[in-house]
Amino acid sequence: MSDLVPILGVLTGIIIPLAVFFWLYQEDKDKRQTVLDIAKHLDDPRKVEQLLGIFDERKKEPVDYRRGGVITLFVGVGIYLLGMIVLGRFFEGIGLLVGAIGAGVMIAGYFFPNTSEEITSAVEKFEEK
After folding, report:
1. How far are the Cα atoms of 61, 62, 122 from residue 26, in angstroms, in the given order?
2. 80-126 pLDDT per residue, tens
3. CA separation for the pair 43, 38 (Å, rounded)
4. Which of 19, 34, 55, 66 could form a disulfide with 109 if both were Cys (CB 3.0 to 4.6 A apart)?
């Protein structure tokens, strides 16, 4: 019975990624089949490209590090306060670590512009020098 816990721990590390892979595959399988069926009946290649563009779920905008940094910073503050009030010094340290990571990500968002307007503005400022 005591050997069962380590075996289940190892199997969990294998089963969970396989289950997620299978779930994502099943979720997208019908979408791919639908796109193939519709594409068979379309004569115009531009319409097929437009159809693929509709189903394309990739983000068009770059990642906003400032927003993510603020969220992570306040998650760290929340963990710190939870540790301070209820759970103890260990969670205070974890909260400070997460908050510091959030502050670093937020600062990185200011150093690295991510929208096209910010990049254009940075290039124009550089060209003026």
Report:
1. 27, 28, 44
2. 888 888 887 888 888 888 888 888 888 777 777 666 666 666 667 76
3. 10
4. 66
Place of tokens 């909260």: 95
pTM to 2 decimal places: 0.43
φ and ψ of 22, to 5 deg: -65, -40
Cα torsion through 30, 32, 34, 39, rounded to 10: -170
> Quick one: CA dihedral 29, 33, 34, 39, positive or negative?
positive
Domain extent at residue 119: 65-128
CA distances from 60 to 53, 63, 115 (A): 11, 10, 11
Last-in-domain residue among 14, 30, 55: 55
Q: Mind listing the pLDDT tens digit for each residue in 25-48?
A: 887 777 777 777 777 777 777 776
Q: Assess if residue 60 is contained within a domain.
A: no
